C-alpha cells in the first residue's frame, strides 16, 4: 500500500527496473501455486486485486520523478573541492573564493600562470578555470598535492624553452590571436571580449587581479561576470 512518501509495500518505485518487476514483487509464492501462470498473476495485481497495485502510467511517472529528484539532490549535495581544505597560499585562497561562482556559471575566470615545469623549462598560459573545474578533480590542487599548471590543451600555452605555442577554444571562450596588442578571449555566453593586455582595460564586466603568491613566478586572474545570481548582485572578486 502506498503511503505519503511514495513507498509501496515497503519499497520505492526506483528500486524496480521495469513495471513487470514491480508487479512481480506483489506476487506471493502461494499465488503462483494456485494460478500456475505468472502473467495471469501480474494481470490480477495490475487490475487491483492487490492492495498495493499501481497502474503502469503512474508507475512510470513516479519512477521518472524519483530519478529526477535523485539527480537534483546529488547535484545540490556535491560539495566544493575547496571545502574543508587548509589554504595556506594566496593563490589557493583566490581560487577557493571563485570556485562556487565558476561552477554555477555566474563567473568565468581566466587564470594566467608563468612558472617552470618539472623539466625546469619556463612555461606560461591562460587557463579557463570554470572549464577545468568541470573536467578534472580539483581536490588535489586545494590539498597541495598537485600544482595547477598550464597545459597544451588550455586556452593558451607557451613553452619558452621549446618555443611550442598552443591556442584552444574552451566551453566558455573563443581565442582571438589576430590582434596587434596580443591575445583576446571572447566569452561564448555574452559575446563580450576580455583583453589580457596589462596596459589595457580588461573589458566590460571583467576585472584583472594580480595575485602575489609563493607557488608561482607570476599569477594574474581575470574575472568575467556572465550573469547575476538570483538573490544578490555579483561583483568581480579582488585580493
TrEMBL record:
Localization annotation: Cytoplasm; Nucleus
Pfam families per UniProt: DUF4464 (PF14713)
InterPro entries, per the entry: DUF4464
Keywords: Cytoplasm, Nucleus
GO CC annotation terms, alphabetical: cytoplasm; nucleus
Function: May be involved in spermatogenesis.
Protein's recorded name: Cilia- and flagella-associated protein 299
Organism per entry: Sinocyclocheilus grahami (Dianchi golden-line fish)
Phylogenetic classification of the source organism: Eukaryota, Metazoa, Chordata, Craniata, Vertebrata
Amino acid at each position: 500500500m502506498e503511503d505519503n512518501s511514495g513507498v509501496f509495500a515497503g519499497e520505492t518505485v526506483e528500486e524496480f527496473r521495469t513495471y513487470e518487476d514491480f508487479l512481480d514483487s506483489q506476487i506471493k509464492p502461494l499465488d503462483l501455486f494456485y494460478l500456475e501462470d505468472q502473467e495471469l498473476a501480474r494481470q490480477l495485481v495490475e487490475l487491483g486485486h492487490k492492495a498495493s497495485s499501481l497502474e503502469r502510467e503512474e508507475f512510470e511517472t513516479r519512477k521518472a520523478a524519483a530519478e529526477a529528484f535523485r539527480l537534483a539532490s546529488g547535484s545540490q549535495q556535491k560539495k566544493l573541492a575547496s571545502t574543508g581544505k587548509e589554504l595556506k597560499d594566496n593563490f589557493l585562497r583566490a581560487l577557493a573564493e571563485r570556485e562556487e561562482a565558476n561552477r554555477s556559471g555566474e563567473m568565468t575566470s581566466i587564470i594566467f600562470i608563468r612558472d617552470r615545469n618539472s623539466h625546469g623549462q619556463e612555461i606560461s598560459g591562460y587557463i579557463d578555470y570554470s572549464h577545468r573545474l568541470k573536467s578534472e578533480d580539483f581536490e588535489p590542487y586545494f590539498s597541495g598535492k598537485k600544482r595547477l599548471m598550464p597545459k597544451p590543451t588550455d586556452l593558451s600555452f607557451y613553452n619558452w624553452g621549446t618555443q611550442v605555442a598552443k591556442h584552444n577554444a574552451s566551453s566558455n571562450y573563443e581565442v582571438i590571436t589576430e590582434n596587434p596588442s596580443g591575445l583576446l578571449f571572447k566569452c561564448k555566453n555574452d559575446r563580450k571580449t576580455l583583453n589580457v593586455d596589462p596596459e589595457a582595460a580588461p573589458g566590460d564586466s571583467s576585472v584583472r587581479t594580480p595575485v602575489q603568491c609563493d607557488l608561482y613566478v607570476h599569477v594574474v586572474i581575470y574575472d568575467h561576470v556572465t550573469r547575476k545570481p538570483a538573490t544578490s548582485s555579483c561583483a568581480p572578486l579582488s585580493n
